[in-house]
Amino acid sequence: MAQATITLYPSRRIATIQPNLYGHFIEHLGECVYGGIWVGEGSPIANTDGIRNDVVQLLRRMRPPVVRWPGGCFADDYHWEHGIGPRAQRRRTVNLHWGETVETNAFGTHEFLRFCELLGAAPYICGNVGSGSPRELRDWVEYCNFAGDSTLAQQRAANGHPEPFRVRFWGVGNENWGCGGNLTPEEYATEYRRFATYLRSFSGTPLTLIACGPSGNDPHWTRRFFTKLGGFPNLQCFAAHYYCGTAGTATNYTVDQWYQLLEQAARMEPLIVQQRAILDGFDPQRRIGLIVDEWGTWHPPAEERNRPLHWQQNTIRDALVAALTLDTFNRHADKVVMGNIAQMLNVLQAVVLTEEDRALVTPTGHVYTIYAPHQGAEAILADFAAEPISYAGGGQLFGLAGSASLRDDRLFLTAVNPHASEPVEARLRLVDGAEARGGEMTTLAADDIHAHNTFEAPETVKPATRPLNVSGRELTVTLPPASVNALSLVL
Predict the structure, then answer these.
(1) Quick check: is 103 catalytic?
(2) 9: pLDDT strictly greater than 90
(3) Over the stretch 216-258, which tens digit does the pLDDT of each residue have?
(4) Are residues 34 and 177 in the same domain?
(5) Phi first, then psi: what are they for 405, rounded to 5°?
(6) In whole numbers, what is the pLDDT of the chain averaged over residues?
(7) What CATH code is carried by the domain that includes residue 260?
(8) Domain match, 186 and 218 both
(9) pLDDT(93) > 60
(10) Which is catalytic among the residues 175, 191, 263, 269?
(11) Among 342, 362, 379, where does a domain finish?
């Protein structure tokens, strides 16, 4: 059995873990929106205003703080006026990026904002820079946020919402280095200044404007963008994207490929550290927040069933990728302010899968429920000491990783054991005079590293919780192989 020591420092605070680090992302792609969220009011599937009740119920357990929409690549060919008004009269358009399917525009601005309302999540709207105009995005902001008697506000009221929606988060384009226009950093900086000039905080709703950042950890994009941008003040956040990709397929991989993907996921840490360091050179007061508004695994097309674009199964390996990423966000709560996993339903690293009238939580979805207590707590220093794991091809992975946070007298520790077949005996040490007076432990694990939930067996991978008999400054726990663990301790 592998050995490890976890030293916890309750008095050494890092920063508040912003709830938005646990955010989500939906796009008009495959069955994410249509079938996943939206079934329409006339569907036999139970719904509220056309939105699936079972999906909302499952998602609410994960406490989603923010949802990004409508893309993704879809955003930069989306024209919001096609998605308002009577649905029977909405324009039918071609989904240019995702299979040339016909977009009915049945799920538009009002439907998305209703979905966020049902979840209790803040909306984050990504605007069209690639094929849109500054006026189009400026009018969308007015339509959503203006409380006065303008024509757009009257139109919003006629469409069923007299009060302003008060949308705060607005992305100025998406992946403008690629599907959002194939712009250089300098060209995008010029476009950003032009668009952002006309985006105003109507009727007392302050805007958080989000600029497109690099693909992965690309320092050249970031430096070139901010150099060209100059001292332009209307910028609140800067968004990188990072997909750790795959190793093998979604459900078929070797032990070495298991480790390879986890190592790829761990590269999120240098991205956050290095991108924040570059930002600090231009923004030493950190008025501009770093976010990662698309991240996750990206496996080859699904093998086991004929499903639309980018549907993929989700195993215990994906759960560990999610946990490692969220722990990285927690450890660097002073550097990153939002994260949005791609995507919420049925696409890529989904937290919920649907099939006709059935819905299930994936292993990744269970991680979000387990980790929810971190939201809004104070991240504290935690030192994880364990022998690294070596695998084929000269690769090496840490033997244990995690994060810790504190809220009042409750210390919350999460830890990932990446060993494919070996448990870890972890000795927990509380320093700074802290002592534990009880707690509980939740574990997400499976006997098979390929284990996943299906509609025939939806609870193959699910968490289990047990009480902890602890009193004092030390505690030893056994972390099963290939597991995600959470310890809640009363101090």
Answers:
(1) no
(2) yes
(3) 999 999 999 999 999 999 999 999 999 999 999 999 999 999 9
(4) yes
(5) -145, 165
(6) 96
(7) 3.20.20.80
(8) yes
(9) yes
(10) 175
(11) 379
Same-domain check for residues 361 and 283: yes
CATH classification of the domain holding 470: 2.60.40.1180
Query: Rounded to an integer, what distance in angstroms lies between the CA atom of residue 213 and that of residue 216?
Result: 9
Residues 409 and 457 in one domain: yes
Which domain does 469 fall in, by range?
A: 2-10+380-490
Domain end, chosen from 327, 349, 379, is at 379
Indicate whether 347 and 372 sit together in one domain.
yes
Q: What is the pTM of this model?
A: 0.97
User: Which of 27, 111, 263, 294 is the catalytic position?
Assistant: 294
Has 175 been annotated as catalytic?
A: yes
Could you tell me the sign of the dihedral formed by the alpha carbons of 162, 167, 168, 170, in that order? Answer: negative
Query: Do the beta carbons of residue 487 and residue 413 sit within 8 Å?
Result: yes
Residues 359 and 453 in one domain: no
Whether residues 6 and 50 share a domain: the answer is no
Q: How high is the pLDDT of residue 190?
A: 98
